[in-house]
Every structure is written in C-alpha cells, then in structure tokens.
Amino acid sequence: MRLSKVDLNLFVVFEAIYRTRNLTRAAEMLFITQPAVSNALARMRKAFDDQLFVSTPGGMIPTAVSENIIGQVREALQLLDSSTHVGGRFDPASSERTFRLSMTDLTEALLLPALQEVLQRLAPGIRIESYFTTRKEVPEALASSAVNLAIDAPLIDDPYLEQEPLGRDRYACLLRHDHPFTKNKLTIEDYLRFGHIHVSSRRQGPGLVDAELNRLGLRRSIQTRVQHYLVAPLIAMRT
To answer: I want to staple 27 with a disulfide (CB 3.0 to 4.6 A). Which of 13, 37, 200, 221 is the partner?
Structure first.
C-alpha cells in the first residue's frame, strides 16, 4: 500500500469508528452520513487487506491490525491537526468565535455572569453557548468539537481527555430558617431522619452523597428528585 494512493480522510473515519465502536455514532461525531462511514471503512479494508473491525452485538470490535495501528494513526492525526494551527494567533479582542461549554445550572450561576462581564469588556465578539452534556456523552462531544469545554465533577475516566481542577467545595445541609430542628450540631442520626432533596441530571441512580452513605451501610430518605441545583433551596424554604 502506498500512502499517495490513500485518502487521508479515511484515517479520520477509522479513528472515529475505533473510538465509538459504532458506525452510526462515528457518522454523528464526524457530521457525515452512516453510508459514507461504511464506504470509507470498505475502502480502508481494501487498502489494508483486513476487516479492521468485526461487527458484533456489542459493537464494532477492532481486529489485531486495527489495534496495531491505532496508536500511530492517532499520533499522525494529532500532528496534522496541530500543524494547521502553527503560526496562528488567537486575538480575543477581534475574535468572533463561538465557544460551546457544558456545565450544570449551578456552575453557570457561579461562572457565567463574571465571564460575560469580562468578555463584554475584553472580547465583545466572542459568543458563549452553555448547555449540559451527560458524562457519558462528554468524550465524544469534545472529540467532535460539539463542546469545547466541559465542567463537571471529576468522574469522567477517559485517557484522551485533559483535565484540570477549577476548585474544591464542601457540601452543606440546608434547612429553612424556621425549621423545627434547633440543635447546634447536626448528627448523622438527625441527618438520616430528615427528608432530602436529591439533585441529578439522571432519571435514576445514586449520587455522590448516596454512594458515600452506602459505603458506610447507611441510607437517606429522598423525598424529591430534581435535575437543577437552583430549585433545591426554593423547595427547602417551603418544606
């Protein structure tokens, strides 16, 4: 096989299939049609004289040849991508770029007002789009540039993501000001006796607090489950 005879875009499709293990999701990630992905895979198979991926009920499983070349393919794609930006300079003052951020409503409330104030003063042409992306979808969203930055708890384990801590915070118990509880110190027994509000973007499943309680052999009583943090204190104020 001669490189001059191979369309380099095929390697982009190859990496997407390897990452997603699914032709349809690879097509969505690359913003092309599923038949186009299938056609590219057929051409890759012919060029390498190998199946490259075997279709199974669990997804597209890479062959030994795919496993052997994926590392070099990714290095080459990263090098090609970085070469397109060499010499480029990002000027916030004149940029009209749109940045897509993924975060919860609480993070939006903490960061976006101050960020927007800075942007209005120093980078008025920059636009921000913020919406929540589930942890399962974050790696693909970042890989496809559907999201430029995701802010979340450090629970996404993906070797191809770069992560930096923004800060740490502590949990606190919130009761309405005229709540019957009058002790100066809240014990674990008191804590478990109360009804709780659980905030989660998922329809079901435990949160971080529940996972820790389960580890201790304890369980709290969840009276209300909501998907946004900012509504929780409004409920607590009236219950």
So the answer is: 37
